[in-house]
Amino acid sequence: MHRFTRMFFPLSCAICALLAFLTGCGGGSSSSTGTGQSAQFTHVYVVFPPSSGVNNQHLMATVMNQAAIEGVTTQTLWRDAETGTPGLATCSPVGTDTCQIDSSGWTHTYDWTTIDSNNAQWFNVAGAKKVNIIVVGINGPGTLPVCLYYNNCINQDTPYYVTSASWVGHFTPAATQDVVNANKDGCTNDVGLVATSMTRAANGVVTVTMPNQPSNGQLIYNNGDLIWVGSSTPSNFNIAQEDITSVQVQSNVLTITSANSLPVGTQVIFEGLGSATFLNNQTVTITSSTPTQFTANFTNANYGPTAVGAGTTNPLGVPVLNATSTSFQYQSGIQSAGTSSVQQTVISAEQSYPVPYETPYMTAYEAFVAAVIAHYNASANLSQISYMRVGRSVGGEAYPYCISNLENLPAPNTYSMTAWLNFYTDIDEFVQAQNPKMEILDPLNESGSGSTADKTYGSDEAGIAVSYKNASGATNGFGSQGLQASDITNYAAASDCSSDWCNMFNQYYQTGIPLELQQYGLSAPVAITNTTSATGDLRPLLPFAVQRHMTVLELYYLDALLAYDPNYCVLTGTAGACDATSSVSIPTIELPAGDQYTYFQAVGQPGQTGATGDGSYATTINTTQGQH
């Protein structure tokens, strides 16, 4: 869940910068909050800065030269570094940033060309700005409409081999690498790529037309890849989670009644059966298939038929057939010709979220983490790196994804809070063993969302984080990537902030460890039609976070531009319209064109006709600060 944030200071920026330089509190791996609120200093970094385009030009010209901005926080993506497949003795010497041996005995080769090239401009910003590193193994699609707009709603950062049979199969005892996605099991936001069209022949073979151009030397969908299909009309094009109507077992033949498009040979697993509970978590292979039911061999006493008010059957995917650069095929169980009338979503096992605490993912990920630390430890730019955050799941965060499905995994991979916290601990132990020279920050997250969110994870994760240190003996810091407006009201009502960060900051701030916050999403300084934001207005939110001992703020780059760039919205001849060719670019799917003028006016910088800057975020960032 990528977000963005801003910063605060009580003296002028120039004086703050001077004091930071003289006292050593202004960034770098040795920076500290000191002891107690009286020594607090809040560092501000632009998170996920754009690497190119008009927004990059604006950021470099108007934001990166601000004294209040200490630098950027960028991602180091697993798939950018490891483009090959591990194996026995594939590289040497092991234990370097280009060659690591994992706990299973296979070696992994890494290439840093792309990552170093992407980071070069940030290390070279005038004034030796800081560059913080987020280690990312799994990518999330972010806000659903935006990823649909860009058609990139897939995990793009886990190397394909992690879910391959050859990788998973070499572990002893036998391992599995489960994945979760929307089409397969209903997990939200992970929705796949949108197909251009789907047509089905009389034999049930469906042809999917969509851009399938080579990526990293291979097609997006290759022959043999397991895929799922969802959101089709009619639904009999879907290869997705299906509701079960009834169950029957007779003479060891299982008959399942449901809307069915699954072909013979498909493996399915059952979940959520309140009756016929003997089927929950069982996997069977379909032996016959019709549009309304399927059968499988299953050893059990005769049963039913029994109507089922709940329960689902989850296919383990169907294989891709005849892939080209513009299309591929799959076999459906519906033996009739037809055409789907709406755009559909397709997702493969490789594009889904792998379960991060399972052996195949964790073994491969730890080797990558070791390579990352070795790379930056030896970097000529090490003095510019203030901290590194190592993600446990999506992005640089640590929240367990789609818990209801993870809880249905068979042992030993069945999800529990204890197992998750053990995984969280294992990563910290592994990171500490690599002797990182930079500060390590750990993410605090909660499980679930909304009213059912379990925020107690944050207190447990904070306690784990402070048990570990870097090579210099500096205790790990921690923070939340979910700063939002409700934190203010919840805290005032003696309730928990997101991930319990308020209570954890109160508990640990006097130890002097870094306490980091990243806002939940794009701010909303005023109420705008069709635009919602959990973050809300930063002007009251940032002072609240400083009062609650925040010492590191990760500011989303669009908000940084809104604070400092008078050309965030370049007015055209008609009041209320922004010139799309000259203004900072906000995708219209995030902020409709008609709203952008109003949005800028709420907190934008003066500097052009009609731009009032009636409460600029820059004022809040530059003057609302911790004591120095």
Describe, in plain words, how this protein is organized in 3D.
The chain is α/β, with parallel strands linked by helices and 628 residues long. It has two domains: 13-152 and 380-623, TIM Barrel (Alpha-Beta Barrel); 242-315, Elongation Factor Tu (Ef-tu), domain 3 (Beta Barrel), CATH 2.40.30. It has 17 helices and 28 strands. The radius of gyration is 26 Å and the shape is globular. Residues 1-38 have low confidence and may be disordered.
Short description:
This protein is of the alpha/beta class. It has two domains: 13-152 and 380-623, TIM Barrel (Alpha-Beta Barrel), CATH 3.20.20; 242-315, Elongation Factor Tu (Ef-tu), domain 3 (Beta Barrel).
Strand composition percent? 15-25%
Low confidence ranges: 1-38
CATH domain class name of the largest domain:
Alpha Beta
Kindly name the structural category. alpha/beta
* Rounded radius of gyration (Å): 26 Å
CATH topology of the largest domain, which one? Answer: TIM Barrel
Count of helix runs? 17
Features:
single chain; alpha/beta; TIM Barrel; Elongation Factor Tu (Ef-tu), domain 3; 2 domains; eight-stranded parallel beta barrel; eight-stranded antiparallel sheet; 17 helices; 28 strands; disordered N terminus
